[in-house]
What we know:
The chain is of the alpha+beta class. Helices cover 39% and strands 15% of the residues.
Amino acid sequence: MKNLSLLLVCLLFLPVFGVRGVAVKNEPVPQDYYGAISKKLARALSMGHVSQKPLTDNVSRQAWTNLLDLFDFDRCYFLQSDINSFTNVEEKIDNMIKDGNVSFPYQVYSVFLHRVQDRYNFVTNRLSKDFDFEIDEDYTIRRKDVAIWPADQKAQDELWRKRMKSDLLGMILSRELAESASTNKSVAAVKSAAVTNTLSAAGESTNSVKSADSAAPKKPPLTPAENIAKRYKQYVQIIEDMDEEAILQRFLSAVSHAYDPHTDYMSPMRKEDFDIDMNLSLCGIGASLRTEDGMAKIMGIIPGGPADKDKRDIRLTNGDKIIGVGQDDDPIEDIVHLPLSKSVRKIRGKKGTKVVLEVIPASDPSGTTTKMVDLIRDNVKLEEQAATGHVSRVTLDDGQQRKIGVVRLPTFYATMDKRLGQPGFRSATVDIAKYIAKFNSEDVEGMILDLRNNGGGSLREAISLTGLFIRSGPVVQVRESNRILVMPVPNIDGALSFRKPVAVLINRASASASEIVAGALQDYGRAIIIGDSKSHGKGTVQTVLPLGSQKYGSLKVTTASFYRINGASTQLKGVHSDIVIPSKLEGLDIGEDKLGGALPWTEVEPAMFVPVFDMHQFTTELKKKSAERLAENKKYLRYCKQVHGFEEAYERKTVPLQRERRKKLMEADRALGEMDDEKVDGVDSVLLPDDAPAVKDADKDDIVLTESMNILSDLIEISGGAEMDIETEGDLSTRLMQIFGGTK
Length: 744
């Protein structure tokens, strides 16, 4: 009995060990005031959300699912027995958060932590053995679409054997292909002395050419197996380092996301990052990010930032996933599974410093290929996000040329605390109106409003901008919880800035305010819409509500919905193009309809409005002419092949684990992403005096814009190019004063 007592005492004082004998801290527990946060969030959700949906068992079930997905999105760490043990809480979360009981996520975390540690041990043991890459078998990617978790330990080990085999084979082949590509390009690279980004999967930067005698000795790169083991070890450490606030963040976010994907709980640290993003300090590279599959996914390239200015073949694009970050010439640091706030802090940095990003391209959902992109950090200036305009000339069959005005609007910007005429006042509408005045003086015959990649901005600007193309009437309907507001164009005495034919360009990244403008001009028959099959489909408005003292955090909640004047919501369905010329985003996983838990499409009663033109009478003929023209355009056919290839890659469910099959697949994916565009003839550009010279060649390289100008030219031809049957009253200065206030 004495020996037994001694044994128990020894056991009580043994340290808890995690990875390879390293002592692990005590598991986190909720703070006393977390219950108060939970109660406040419960009230704010049910009262503040536009749906006015009460907290019920349905919300509880969705929150339960969301929480498990936030921990194990790939359904590979938990066992089905773990999930079964959590089901007793599935319909109780609603009552738990009302009562201030936040214990459940800490129970889930405890189980998950031990499963992660167990899987790391499996990984290190399995990677020490050889894999047979001649066996013809496949691995299922995107396991988040799989309905169940592994049934038992045996099933989990088999799943992870294939996962390790896929990771290892992909990294081996990616390195081989990168070295081959580097060798093929080395002569040209030395001549230009400007190789700044090359494909790599080895984890080190290869973005510059150095002579052998000047290159400092470097530590040998990690082997593929070492690289994979390092990544999983880092993940274990990240999970072990999770504190009580991070676990609460996951839980209350899971509950918030049960209402819609844009409603979210923001802990004090999360709120700090949100405020920085709203002030346009976007990661130092000019990109907005969100977490997906444990990686930092690029949701938008900010106009005027370093990523937007980068025009090299290998550059950042929407949908890319950042998996590693390097500072200047230092080794790449893996950020997979790192909390987004910490990843962002690594990407941000002092202006003028270099950051090197290891990226999984958007075109490769299997994650088996990577590219290296280096950028010089810089601030995103409002001036560089401003509207730009120029006049292009379309050459007709008889050799004559037609002038087309082109305006690109990256975002609906506005200075909210100033009035027109005051120093520092900026307005997208004012800037575009000035370009329109120049177009009118140049006698252009039509205008293109380019809203591609415009994620939205000021609602006021969207409404006032629409007023430059229609005389009067409603622009958008806004539904709050208990009322519908009809927002009309400003009272500008029937004045109209531009009266000739208009085309609006959109893609899957055109959202919110862009969809309001495009939808209104389409409903009025004032413009023809060209681009991707539809826009992004975000038809909601969010408001940030503090939950009390600063330590309680805030709730970002959806408080209103947008509706077109025809009564249809822009939610999910977006705005459909009259003529589809797809961008490279068309087949990618981008859009509101790709977000889990998005609010459904709904409709309200149409507003009272009178269309100013019947654009549909010309659509059939315009489509026919465009199709005939593009069928003879070799550049467009190559472009379509690339777009369709991206779409097929995204629909891929499995990847081969046999070496030659996998290599052929990866070679095809790389070739698809590296297709070079050719120059196109038939379009010349004449710049307005205050435009940058770089615009001159932009039209020639932009397939969608080039064909859109041809379509607009066709519209001018078959419609007779008639101006709107409305008289313009008052000069531009007077009308802008009426829109924005101020004195002349």
